[in-house]
Structure formats: C-alpha cells, structure tokens
C-alpha cells in the first residue's frame, strides 16, 4: 500500500482560501485538495494559517493573518465567544447562519438518507436571535483560587469566567451573578473534577418565558450544603422572581450534570410557563425546549404539516411533559402520548388536567415496547408525531410503526444525521417524505430543529 501524501506539516505556515464550513462551523481551506479546518474563518476569506495538526485525511490550523473579509462576517466578535463553545457561529451574520443550516440539512439528507429530492425549506429564524435561552447550566470551578462561573474552553474542562453569556435571557445572567456572590460569601467550595472534591458543581437556572418565574438548581456533590437556608433567603431577596430553589445531589464522578436526588430548599418544586396558549409545570429534570418562542413556531409547523381533521386519532411518541400532545389536542378526536420518564408522564397528566384537555391519555414506558402493545391491542393512529432524543428512533420502533401504518408521520428532530437515517427506513417502508422544515431554536450555534412530513404510499 502506498503511503498517502500529506501536503502540509505541523507548524508550517500556508496560505488558503476558505471554501466552505463544516457542520461544526469551522472554515475549510484546502492545500492541494487536502482540507484544513480553521476556527473563526468564513467562506471566501483569504488567510495565512499555521498548521496545528496534520492527520491522514484532514488537519487543523489557526488563522495568523486574514487578508480579506467575508461580506457575511459580523464586524465585532467577542474573544470569549471564540474561546468557548457558547456560540460557534456568532461571527456569521444571522441570514447566513439560516442559509448555512438549510444547506447542511439538505447535504445530510442526500449523504446519509440518500434523499436528494426531498425539499428542505428555508430555515425559520428569530427576529432577535440573542438572549433567547430560558435555561442555563453553568459550571462552578475554582479559577486562580476563586470560585468562578463561566463556560468551558473549547474541547476542555478549563473554566473561562463569563458574566455575559450572550444567548441566555439577561435575567438568567443576573441570577447566576447573584448566586455566585452569595455562595462565595458563605464559602461554599467549588467542585474540583480532577480530585472529585469540593461541593458546588453547577448552577442551573430555568426561567418561564411568559411567566417570568425563576427556578435555581444548585447541583452539589455532597448531601450536605452548609447554610442552605441563608443562601436561599439571600437569593430570593436579591432576585425576587425566584419561586423555586432546588438542591440536586450528584455524587458521581461523571460529566452528566444532574444527579437523581432533588431537595426543595425554597418555594415550589416546579415553575410554570406557557406554550401556544396552554400552561405547563416544569420540574428541575424535565425536558423543555430552551427557546420558548421558537418552540411555539416548531410545534405550530408540526400542527400545520399534519393538517389534522376532527376525527383523527393521533399518537405523540417521546412526548415529555405533553407539550406537543396538548398543543394539538384541540384539533383532533384523541391523542395518545408515550414517554419513558414516569415523572414526565405524571407532569403530562397534570398538564392535561390544568388545561382542561380531556381527550389526551399518557402512558409511561419505552416507545418501542408500548407501541408493540398498542399494535397488539388494535390501537391505530391516523397521524403519528415523533420527537425523539438526538440518537433518533430505535429500528424496532420503526418496525412497529410500519405495522401500525399511520396515514401521516410528522417527525420532529434535533439531529439531521439521525433524521436522515430514519427517513431512509421509512422511505424504504412505504412512506413518501414530502418536505423538511428547519426551525432555528439555537441561533449563534450550529444546532437546528427540524420538522419532516411523511405520508403513506397507498399501493
Ligand atoms: C426531544 S425530547 C421531546 C419531549 C417533548 N416532545 C417536548 O417537545 O418537550 C425527547 C423525549 O424522549 C424521551 N425518551 C427517550 N427515550 C425514550 C424511549 N425509548 N421511549 C419513550 N420516550 C423516550 C425523553 O425522556 C424526552 O422526554
């Protein structure tokens, strides 16, 4: 076997023109066809770069001098945002971010799903694409001997202290600042993940977009949190919107942020919010879309795609606390929801009752198992809505869906790659993929939500 020629070497300086962006938002510049991935580099830009790593098929480089500037470059960029992973696309103007996401989705459908003819509609964006997040999960670490809150430097667990998180609601930023000052005052020890010592690991803040209610979650390594009553009292004094303070205990040496045990230190154990006119209770561990106004656009798109009729029976699989099922319940005869986390199912039932929705039932269990049971009981759906986690649908689940044979399937996804893989299986199993709509719930980042519409091919 001949050894592959690599035209650059580590520490070499080369000139490149940026031709494209990777799905992670890195610029791609080529030397004799060999791609170098470069941070903070945009298509059309000419630059001199330093090669940091030269692998067999691609390498990494960093810009030394930019000789020309893309028309899509934002004039002012923040060094902190470049150093951390908070907002990897913040240097690209928003219109170009939306076009980038549409193109990435179309490429993925072609490459992974072998579905080049499926129309991918222009990404639906936000009017004001900053400070949109209703939830923050902020690590707490010691930096230069002081307890700090911030964000991890890219590809590391080194904390970069930050006060303006850019994509979070500003009240959340202020809340984090106050909580940081209060826990410092009471000498709470920050977590050290190398030694697995210290106590406070993360500060999580959730805020109801419409209600303004705030929940603070203090994630600790130990059960004991000294002075928690004084800490709670001072948090509420400084941030009166706080209606709930929870201690979440995570004793394990892990990157998973939350542990299993919650204790309510102050107020309620939930906050309330609204989506498409219905109210929801959200607990510390529940899944809830982080961009409320765009979640409404996402769910409304799913409802519009489905074109429900009043006789329709609908299944909402991976239903969480019932947000999609309850948003569409008014349009249909009956909706069945299934979700694996029993607490979320309990929330979904409560949410149905508090919104006087009487035609929605929820079952706890794995979608694949519950579907098997429903198929054997003769329960069918005219329309199936699925909204799985990033890993997409289980192949066994897809087999049960093909048996149940709903007329339409509306697939909501946060991962173009697994969506493309699963759409291929449906397309091979008698479904026509009509269209895919990207909705931008995560401006300034490379993530995007998608709604795909499929209809059963009768013959
Ligand atoms: C992307 S969230 C969507 C939740 C909800 N549809 C919403 O919009 O708020 C995915 C949900 O799938 C649930 N889940 C994960 N694996 C599951 C499985 N095998 N069966 C049923 N639900 C599952 C998760 O607990 C989570 O609530």
UniProtKB/TrEMBL annotation:
GO terms for biological process: rRNA base methylation. The active site is at residue 414. GO terms for molecular function: rRNA (uridine-C5-)-methyltransferase activity. Keywords: Methyltransferase, S-adenosyl-L-methionine, Transferase. S-adenosyl-L-methionine binds at residues 289, 318, 339, 387. It comes from the Bacteria. Gene3D superfamilies: 2.40.50.1070, Nucleic acid-binding proteins, Vaccinia Virus protein VP39. Residues 7-65 form the TRAM domain. SUPFAM superfamilies: Nucleic acid-binding proteins (SSF50249), S-adenosyl-L-methionine-dependent methyltransferases (SSF53335). This is 23S rRNA (Uracil(1939)-C(5))-methyltransferase RlmD. It comes from Vagococcus acidifermentans.
């Amino acid at each position: 076997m001949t050894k592959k020629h690599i035209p650059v070497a580590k520490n070499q300086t080369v000139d490149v023109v940026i031709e494209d962006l990777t799905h992670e938002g890195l610029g791609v510049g080529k030397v004799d066809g060999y791609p170098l991935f470069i941070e903070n580099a945009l298509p059309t830009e000419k630059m001199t770069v330093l090669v940091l790593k030269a692998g067999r098929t691609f390498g990494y480089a960093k810009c030394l001098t930019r000789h020309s500037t893309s028309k899509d470059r934002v004039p002012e960029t923040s060094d902190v945002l470049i150093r951390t992973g908070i907002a990897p696309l913040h240097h690209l103007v928003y219109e170009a971010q939306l076009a980038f996401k549409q193109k990435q989705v179309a490429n993925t459908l072609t490459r992974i799903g072998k579905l080049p003819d499926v129309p991918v509609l222009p990404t639906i964006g936000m009017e004001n694409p900053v400070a949109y997040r209703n939830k923050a999960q902020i690590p707490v670490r010691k930096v230069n001997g002081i307890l700090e809150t911030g964000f991890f430097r890219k590809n590391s667990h080194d904390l970069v202290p930050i006060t303006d998180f850019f994509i979070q609601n500003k009240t959340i930023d202020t809340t984090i600042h106050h909580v940081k000052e209060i826990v410092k005052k009471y000498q709470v020890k920050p977590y050290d993940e190398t030694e697995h010592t210290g106590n406070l690991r993360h500060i999580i803040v959730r805020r109801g977009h419409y209600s303004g209610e705030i929940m603070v979650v203090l994630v600790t390594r130990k059960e004991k949190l000294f002075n928690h009553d004084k800490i709670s009292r001072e948090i509420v004094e400084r941030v009166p919107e706080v209606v709930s303070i929870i201690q979440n205990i995570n004793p394990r040496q892990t990157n998973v942020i939350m542990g299993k045990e919650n204790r309510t230190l102050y107020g309620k154990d939930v906050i309330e919010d609204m989506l498409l006119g219905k109210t929801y209770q959200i607990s510390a561990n529940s899944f809830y879309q982080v961009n409320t106004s765009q979640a409404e656009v996402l769910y409304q798109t799913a409802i519009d795609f489905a074109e429900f009729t009043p006789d329709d029976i609908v299944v909402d699989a991976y239903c969480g606390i019932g947000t999609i099922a309850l948003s569409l319940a008014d349009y249909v005869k009956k909706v069945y929801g299934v979700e694996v986390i029993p607490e979320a199912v309990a929330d979904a039932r409560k949410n149905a009752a508090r919104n006087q929705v009487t035609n929605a039932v929820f079952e706890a269990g794995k979608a694949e198992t519950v579907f098997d049971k429903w198929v054997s009981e003769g329960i069918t759906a005219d329309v199936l809505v699925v909204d799985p986690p990033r890993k997409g649908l289980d192949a066994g689940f897809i087999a049960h869906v093909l048996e149940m044979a709903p007329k339409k399937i509306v697939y909501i996804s946060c991962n173009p790659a697994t969506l493309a893989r699963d759409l291929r299986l449906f397309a091979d199993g008698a479904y026509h993929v009509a269209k895919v709509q990207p909705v931008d719930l995560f401006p300034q980042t490379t993530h995007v939500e998608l709604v795909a519409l499929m209809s059963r091919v009768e013959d």
